[in-house]
Amino acid sequence: MDVLEYQAKEWFREMGIPVLPSQRIDRPGDIKRLKIPYPVVLKSQVRVGGRGRAGGVRFVTNTIDAIAAAQTIFHLSILGELPEVLLAEAKYDADQEFYLAVVLDGAAHRPLLLGSPQGGIDVESAPELLQQVVVDQEFSPFYARRLTIKMGLQGPLIQTVSGIIEKMYQLFVQKDLDLVEINPLGVSSTGELMALDGKVTVNDRAIARHPDVAAMAEKIVQREKGRKYSLELGTWDEVEPSGNIAVLGNGAGLVMATMDLLTDAGSQPASCLNIGHGRSWNSTTPSFSDRLQQGLEFLSEQKNIQVVLVNILGTVPTPTELAPVIVSFVQRRERMGTGKSRNQTYSPRVIVRFAGADFDSAKEQLAAVQVPLVESLDQAIAQASRLAKSSGRRR
Amino acid sequence: MKLTPDSKVVIQGYCEPLMVTHAARMKAYGTNVIATISPGQSGQTLDEIPVFDLVEQAVAEFGVIDTTIILVPPYQALDAALEAIAAGIRQIVIIPAGVPPLDMVHLLRKAEATETLVVGPNSPGIIVPGKILLGTHASEFYTPGSVGIVSRSSTLTYEIASELTKAGLGQSIGVSIGSDAITGSSFLQWLQILDEDENTQAIVLVGEPGGNSEEAAARYIAETIDKPVIAYIAGRNAPPGKHWGHTGTLAAVVGRGVNVGTTQSKLTAFKEAKVPVADRPSQIPGLMKKALK
């Protein structure tokens, strides 16, 4: 999860990383109560890059201009994202700009320190200047100093910049981050340092153990339009909105393989739902059967989906235990459908693929509600894509 | 690597249905589960297996323990693994999904220093068909034989084992290393283990988008593995940038080109290494039989 610049800077401030005086602006009228002396920079608080080029960052020198600029930025959508708040910040004259980051590297299996003496928007134009240091063992400040030396820094900057890297690393560990980036780190003519912009990404899996981050995440979910699929129930990925078939499976690998095969067979998967494994840690999290039932309900509410291919392999609830979940889902949809127009309660056709010891008893249960059960993956794909092609599109 | 039926195994978890089910399955498969560790529940027995509060108490009772299966909630996995290392256990299987990657970084520093093999997290562990089950694999899809499967996905491992079994090709071992950004053991480690394993004649490697472990594995196979290897990569038609429930796909791979991590980059790597790649799981047995000729 990406946090916004003003939230990142609050964390920087708490860690002792120098940031400019700034103020959160919730509405254009807040500008009248600005405590920062002009000139001021107004910045759109969005999670996407390129806001400067898009016009989301403006310099203002007086209240009238500031209110007008704030109104403009509040209405400026950047890559489809409108800001909820702006950040008003003092202007800073930097002599030099550095790039600094701590990132989790999937190849080294370790955190990496990154730094470039050429920061700001130029960082990408000089990749050869980007230095890295792998934090192989328990962190100690020498790793940070090693990076500053690689960056070619000299004199007092070695200690001051490595002090900032150290604090970034502490924040990285404290908040379970995937990334913390300061770009640019402004350096004044007197050698004073200032974090002028920052990017912070919290690892999604760790959110639940940080109450402050969990509260931020909750707000984002509430803001998002349309129905969000609860992470407790699995992960839902939209593939192609114009498709008419959905995959529901246990485990990302199997779900992806199923999607590949459907595409190869000439069908267009609309979305994929991975309900995870049969492992449920306690009674407060939904059981596998609950996830299956809610997953089916969720997919039925999507108007474009006409066929759902359920592909579940080797989980703790056996096929015999899972079949009733599908049977009651089909029966419930049928009951809902009586007396209403087909449009209101259209139900997708379900095809199920289970394998293993319980196959026959599950097949018998599902036959009672005319749901086909197939053991071979290739045959399940063939049947599902035939059905998807003959169904055409709904509305 | 100690993967024989007589090796001593404990399970760290809670005496809840989840652990009860898996403990019973492992035991029924012939795994020597000597104890379960469930703080505050010692003195009970679970399916005739004694329960202890601490790993070290089980060690005091039974001597050196070879392997632990960690079945605790994800935020407690690091602590459980550190406890196991402190008690002298050198093979650890971490079952839960959702372990924060920085916990794994912490654990791997310890594991490397103590030469501990860690499988997982987000993994069903290891199965040696007909001999031992260390984890939660659906054992019914496996049959003893000489093909080793190393994978990042648990369900795909079952899928491929089942295809091989149907074609009369048994398996020497099935292991899924998990698909997280930071995993304990890597493809390279397992390729090395399978290369040295005399029961393994051929290898199936199962990959997916994210990270660079398949690319590294392809180079390693070309350079050092003489046994036949067949690869299968899921996610050929997956739109990039989706997570598919695997955050591993989002892990940064710094300074190694923009394409690293995509299915395409992995397929290219195997092509360059002259490793046959199956388009679908059901193609694997045919390719395998051809390679074994």
UniProtKB/TrEMBL annotation, chain A:
<dbReference type="GO" id="GO:0006099">
    <property type="term" value="P:tricarboxylic acid cycle"/>
</dbReference>
<dbReference type="InterPro" id="IPR005809">
    <property type="entry name" value="Succ_CoA_ligase-like_bsu"/>
</dbReference>
<feature type="domain" description="ATP-grasp">
    <location>
        <begin position="9"/>
        <end position="222"/>
    </location>
</feature>
<keyword id="KW-0460">Magnesium</keyword>
<dbReference type="InterPro" id="IPR013815">
    <property type="entry name" value="ATP_grasp_subdomain_1"/>
</dbReference>
<dbReference type="InterPro" id="IPR005811">
    <property type="entry name" value="SUCC_ACL_C"/>
</dbReference>
<dbReference type="InterPro" id="IPR016102">
    <property type="entry name" value="Succinyl-CoA_synth-like"/>
</dbReference>
<dbReference type="InterPro" id="IPR011761">
    <property type="entry name" value="ATP-grasp"/>
</dbReference>
<keyword id="KW-0547">Nucleotide-binding</keyword>
<keyword id="KW-0479">Metal-binding</keyword>
<dbReference type="InterPro" id="IPR013650">
    <property type="entry name" value="ATP-grasp_succ-CoA_synth-type"/>
</dbReference>
<dbReference type="GO" id="GO:0046872">
    <property type="term" value="F:metal ion binding"/>
</dbReference>
<dbReference type="Pfam" id="PF00549">
    <property type="entry name" value="Ligase_CoA"/>
</dbReference>
<dbReference type="GO" id="GO:0005829">
    <property type="term" value="C:cytosol"/>
</dbReference>
<keyword id="KW-0067">ATP-binding</keyword>
<dbReference type="GO" id="GO:0006104">
    <property type="term" value="P:succinyl-CoA metabolic process"/>
</dbReference>
<keyword id="KW-0436">Ligase</keyword>
<dbReference type="GO" id="GO:0005524">
    <property type="term" value="F:ATP binding"/>
</dbReference>
<dbReference type="GO" id="GO:0004775">
    <property type="term" value="F:succinate-CoA ligase (ADP-forming) activity"/>
</dbReference>
<dbReference type="Pfam" id="PF08442">
    <property type="entry name" value="ATP-grasp_2"/>
</dbReference>
<dbReference type="GO" id="GO:0042709">
    <property type="term" value="C:succinate-CoA ligase complex"/>
</dbReference>
<protein>
    <submittedName>
        <fullName>ATPase</fullName>
    </submittedName>
</protein>
TrEMBL record, chain B:
<feature type="active site" description="Tele-phosphohistidine intermediate">
    <location>
        <position position="246"/>
    </location>
</feature>
<dbReference type="InterPro" id="IPR005810">
    <property type="entry name" value="CoA_lig_alpha"/>
</dbReference>
<dbReference type="GO" id="GO:0004776">
    <property type="term" value="F:succinate-CoA ligase (GDP-forming) activity"/>
</dbReference>
<keyword id="KW-0547">Nucleotide-binding</keyword>
<dbReference type="GO" id="GO:0000166">
    <property type="term" value="F:nucleotide binding"/>
</dbReference>
<dbReference type="InterPro" id="IPR036291">
    <property type="entry name" value="NAD(P)-bd_dom_sf"/>
</dbReference>
<protein>
    <submittedName>
        <fullName>CoA-binding protein</fullName>
    </submittedName>
</protein>
<keyword id="KW-0436">Ligase</keyword>
<dbReference type="GO" id="GO:0006099">
    <property type="term" value="P:tricarboxylic acid cycle"/>
</dbReference>
<dbReference type="InterPro" id="IPR003781">
    <property type="entry name" value="CoA-bd"/>
</dbReference>
<dbReference type="Pfam" id="PF00549">
    <property type="entry name" value="Ligase_CoA"/>
</dbReference>
<feature type="domain" description="CoA-binding">
    <location>
        <begin position="2"/>
        <end position="99"/>
    </location>
</feature>
<dbReference type="InterPro" id="IPR005811">
    <property type="entry name" value="SUCC_ACL_C"/>
</dbReference>
<dbReference type="Pfam" id="PF02629">
    <property type="entry name" value="CoA_binding"/>
</dbReference>
<dbReference type="GO" id="GO:0004775">
    <property type="term" value="F:succinate-CoA ligase (ADP-forming) activity"/>
</dbReference>
<dbReference type="InterPro" id="IPR016102">
    <property type="entry name" value="Succinyl-CoA_synth-like"/>
</dbReference>
<dbReference type="GO" id="GO:0009361">
    <property type="term" value="C:succinate-CoA ligase complex (ADP-forming)"/>
</dbReference>
